[in-house]
Amino acid sequence: MTDGVTTKRYREALNDALREEMLRDETVMLMGEDIGVFNGAFKVTNGLLKEFGEKRVRDTPISENTIVGMGVGAAMTGLRPVVELMTINFSLLAMDQIVNHAAAIHYMFGGQVKVPLVVRMPQGAGHQLGPTHSHSWEALYLHAPGLLVATPSTAADAKGLLKSAIRDDNPVIFIEHEYLYGQRGEVPDDPEFTVDFGHAAIRREGTDVTIVGISRMAITAERAAETLSTEHDISAEVIDPRTLRPLDLDTILDSVRKTNRCIIVEEGWPHGGVGANLAALIQEQAFDWLDAPIGRVTGADVPMPYSKPLEQAAFPHEPQVVEAVRHLF
Amino acid sequence: MADQAQPRPLPDPVTSREWLQTMMLIRRFEERAGEMYAKAKVGGFLHLAIGEEAAIVGCARALRDDDYLISTYRSHGHALVRGSNPDAVMAELFGREGGLCRGRGGSMHMFDLANRFMGGYGIVGGNLPIAAGFGLASDYLGTDDATLCTFGDGAINQGTFGETMNLAALWKLPVVFLVTNNQFGMGTALERHSANTDLQERGQSFGVPGMRCDGMDVVDTYEVCREALETARTERQPVLVEAITYRFRGHSMADPEEYRTKDQVEEWRKRDPIITFAERLREADIIGEGDAEQMDADAVKVVDDAVAFADASPFPALESLYDDIYVLGDQLKGWYSVDERGAGVQKGEDIGA
After folding, report:
1. B interface mutation test: which of A58, A62, A70 has the most B CBs within 10 A?
2. What pLDDT shows up at residue B252?
3. How many domains is chain A partitioned into structurally?
4. Same-domain status, A63 and A137
5. Predicted complex ipTM exceeds 0.90
6. Beta bridge partners of A122
7. Any idea where the domains of chain B sit in the sequence?
């Protein structure tokens, strides 16, 4: 046990998680496009091929559905594969293996076999990559029973949740964020540090409104809370669920019962989104505590445009969150 | 593929009889499953493998016990040939708790881990990458196990076919891919769905050599698959085997068969794998007068018992609806933690907590 912390980038924290779990368990292996010789499109797997060799760190052809499917098969027969997909948009090519197979196999075969597979993928707008590389789709994977879904927003959570994901016996969709890869945060040095799924983080305590931020939007929500405090005298409580399946609904409900107002912030599309789901759950459980309708701040209901001003207008920023909160009072 | 005029030598008498017996069991099982479907004992889709028994028994008998067999949605016979209890296979069709998969999978999703029958899969081509994953694990863990993956001619046009051939060859995985060419992808004839109808050739550009067997001949199928498995196991070279066969029944029970003629079906029925093999065994004095009839009666008895078992097996309890969605453990203690529908007391709260 060590009590220290080190400031690391989100991508470095993920890299540490992969390395530590590979050292801990010989059955952990990595597959993905350009994760080896190229060291990863976002450098998350930097140095791992050199350290662990080609048996355990495998560059693959561009065959998303088959890479994930091989991960499913290998997971069923004794390995703990971690598959990297270059963006969440590309994961749609693997939707068959993820939803029809990985998510269903334990159930449809009557519990005879487990699928301890992690599929990592980054999401998010802001790099002008247009409508095939920039979306935020945690809602798609939240939809499917059988999958666990993680959306870490800090370096510590990235590491702790990824280690938990690799150790878990269920298929995990692990959604990283392109913007966050370069962000720094304090990460515990203890190699046994993990973050359990199903435990939300209260990023900031407050009394007037609950802001739930998903993925990067947890960071945006914290900034908005600071502005609300200094400029508008509104005390916002900010919650990052960290995992959407399992969802720590109790922590969110406790907060809403205290503040009586709630805004949900997500980067994905509004229809059928995480916020739509969460708003339904909150009103079912805490209707009598609400003093205002539950608000949502979401990505625009459009394919992501390329042009910088349009792209910036198509996903939430701090002023929109501030405005949405003020609208509740 | 052996010349029709010169069939391959028969295996020893005990083995020959077992192959015939198993093909008969599959035939009788499938026929009865069809009857049970007509009586609404079986729901959903029901895809029968009548006519394909030699392709099933021949490939499976080429496997070692520890090898993996993975199949499609037409997989009752694959479960049976691997040693699954016919009672449990029938009960699965009936959707009962005593089914192979406790009634969760049904006809299209049989699975029997203990016998290394690694599943029937309902998505055409969906099992190919998973089979390669088994091969990857065998390779990674340094075992001597091989995988045999069956799929239909329809699946050969899925993207997963090319992707999987490429990866299996690239990574030298011990997998034999067996395309069961029964002449139709559902109702679309081979020459109407494939520009190149020489299916065993289709792996070659990916580095997967092809072989062909007579899927109506259990001995030929066995010998070709045995050779292919040897290549896969010892040379770490995946192989694509094409078994030429025919299904005598429709694609599923909901198939009026308007895409083929009765004459064509009759022509293939002359090559019935059970009748022709029984004839060979008779000619070789491996079975005598009345033996085949007795073996058939034995098969019918097993199927009778399976139906009785399935009928007596209860439907799964409604409280078990949420069983086995997730593997519970230190992190997930019950389905309450992953089910957000209500904050009231939920069943899963006391599971494994």
Report:
1. A70
2. 86
3. 2
4. yes
5. yes
6. A176
7. 13-316, 325-353
Domain identity same for A24 and A171: yes
The enclosing H or E element of B166 equals: helix B159-170
Range of the structural domain that residue A163 is part of: 5-188
Nearest Cα to A327, choosing from A300, A301, A296?
Answer: A296
Q: Which of B73, B151, B327, B333 should one mutate to test binding to chain A, selecting the residue with the greatest count of A CBs within 10 A?
A: B327
pLDDT tens for A54-69 read 999 999 999 999 999 9
Whole-number Å distance between alpha carbons of B6 and B315: 51
Between residues 214 and 273 of chain A, which touch chain B (CB distance below 8 Å)? Answer: 245-247, 249-250, 253
Say yes or no for a CB contact (<8 Å) between B324 and A245.
Answer: no
Q: Is the dihedral of CA B2, B6, B11, B16 positive or negative?
A: positive
The order of strands in the sheet holding A236-240 is A201-204, A236-240, A209-213, A262-265, A295-297
State the pLDDT confidence band at A285, using cuts at 50, 70 and 90: confident
Q: pLDDT tens, A219-261?
A: 999 999 999 999 999 999 999 999 999 999 889 999 999 999 9
Chain-chain contact of A168 with B113 (C-beta, under 8 angstroms): no
d(Cα B131, Cα B113) in Å, to the nearest integer?
14
Domain B13-316 bears CATH identifier 3.40.50.970: yes
Let me know if residue A195 belongs to a domain: no
Q: In B, which residues are within 8 Å of A76 by CB distance?
A: 118, 130, 133-134, 137
Shortest CA gap A242–chain B (Å): 14
| Residues of A with active-site annotation | 64, 133
CB contact under 8 A, B137 and A78: yes
Of B105, B326, B338, the CB nearest to A110: B105
A241 and A175 belong to one structural domain: no
pLDDT at position A142, please? 95
* Cβ partners under 8 Å of residue B244, min gap 6: B1, B181, B212, B213, B214, B215, B216
Kindly report the average pLDDT of chain A as a whole number: 96
- Least Cα distance to A75 among A21, A23, A113, A121 occurs for A113
Which residues of chain B register pLDDT less than 50?
337, 340-353
